[in-house]
Fold:
Amino acid sequence: MILKRYRAQKKYKMKYLNLLFLAIPSTAKANAHGSSYPLQVRLPTHQLHFGLSATILRPSLPATFNFTLFTLFILSFSLSSFAQFKLAEELKTTKSTEPTSNYLFPINPGQLNILTGTMGELRSTHFHAGIDVRTNSMVGIPILATHSGYISRVIVGTGGYGHCIMITHPDGNISLYGHLEQFKGAIAKYVLTEHYKRKSFDLDLRFASNQFLITKGDTIALSGNTGSSAGPHLHFEIRNPSNEALNPLAFGFTEVVDKLAPMAFRIALKTMDANARVNDKFGRYEFGLVRNGNSARLPAPILAHGKIGVEILAHDKLDGSQFRCGISKIQMYVDSVLTFEQQIDKIDFNTSRDIVTLLDYKSLKTKGVRFNKLYVEDGNPLKFYPIKNPGFVYLSKGNRKVKIVLRDFAGNESVAHFTMKSDPPTGEVPFLENLIKPLDYEVVENTLIVYTKPCGVKEKSIQLFVKGKIVEARAAYKHINHKVYLIDLKRILPDSIATCKGSIALNYKDVVPSQTEYKYYSDRVDIQFPDGSLYDTLYLNLSETKRINRAVYSIGNLLTPIHGSISITLKQTGLGGNPKMAAYHEEGNRFEYLGGEWNDDRISFNTRELGNFTILADSVPPEIGRISCTPLYARFRIRDNLSGIETFEAKINAEWLLMKYDYKTGILQSERLDKKRFLKGDFELKVTDRAGNESVYQQKIL
Structure:
């Protein structure tokens, strides 16, 4: 319908032009080109909405040319422009979001480009939503619009995408360009003006479809290293109208070559209930694969029994790139039957944090490695699984032959093989690791595992204290110097454990259900769990320990992921609401500022992690280090020792001055609104941390 309408408009325009030229005076003489007019002059193409264009052919006419005729010609051109603008408006309603080859690669199109990251790659806190294009450790590479459209959004910030442009296209898709050094064209001037108008470095600007029109191939920015970037590169996304990230490589870019198959390195097997075993033991165990070309295998069968979950450590490789990239599709076959399938072809930003349900979270937090679960547990909301089978492997007798197929987006494929041999549980296990501590424990899902050294031959049980009562538990399996007890926390929630080797206070206070709102109250701590904040049932343990000059509140386990923020109130702190004091999450030697609101000696704050919390005072102001402060620019390095930088503001002769901030390096650098107006006079830089401490630098610039 749109095409027919456009043809009708074009036909009308040509008929109108024919009538127009028939009205030209007959006194005109032919020139050397066989025309009644001198050589036509082609004016610059006029860019219209969504990249449509019109070219004006202007005859070189005698001075006696009738002014009315010229007016009619302009009117004809206006009708043509209007028709094309109307077509662009109608294109807005034509939402064909399927990947096409009409998109232009945003860096050096037509040339080989190297990627340092792909869509769907597993990051620590999210799925990577686009591709990262290498810029050879340089900034300032021209970034081109991948398709015609209009700039719909610009973001400037210290973290995330840093300097970012989003362009909406006629098909409804949106392209995103992140970590930019600077914007180009009319948008650059507009953004700079907005910085000064709002007196803010951070911006989030949205635009109408007729404000900043873009043609495919326009230079919209220069590449950079802004925001949460580990090095200079372009982060490039293509999103559909539902704001889901699509795989940019699906749009037919020939600039990226990938002939390398994914690589598998390790397999992990995990017992999924108290009756399951791997090599006669309960828990999670890893095994190294032996690779040969695009095939990998375990050299010997693994003894197993019951309900088993399989995990794999693997990543993809691209030609010319040393970086680890994401795998688009994973399939697991058990005895030739498809048991599990995972396919990441688009990413919903609302569920990106739920990557913690796909990864083995303990391995991520303790070792920094990302094992991909090949099973779907309760609480996993991701929609990457085409088949309904949750993927668990069950063994009661015989063998199970497992084949894992890894496939990247280019179709390169590798395979991992291993065999699980059924082996019923036994009370006597020939190989158990030596214990470092005489008594230790850990929690895996709903099972409390207690490890202890035996005291003698006659010892058969340990004592569990449950609300003042004693319950005895027998060992699930043992070796000569090692006993293992498995306690089902769904049945019993002990306060402490006692053996001849000592006792351990578990400090379990409550069982918090998932997928419902729940509130816990006590004399020292209140906790509010909003609906949906937990992935699974939480066995809540609480304790308070005294350290030098501070208390540490242990709330839950750091290795337990949670879905949303929970609210914690620490009571009877005895600190009296000192405004310089705030709540911090403690992880090793690192303290993450959480802030909080004081009410007498109570402090309330939100967190998205469990673990250790403490209250610290920050009375030290930020540091300001001068690098350069001249009429051309002001450049400083700022840092804070604890709570972190909250605000910064520079002024020249009491007028606000834009300072661009890179939190990775701590560098602040000025940018003048009027490049002809140098920095002269009284300069002042004020930096404040989150505790309210303030530092001021002043200088007279001559």
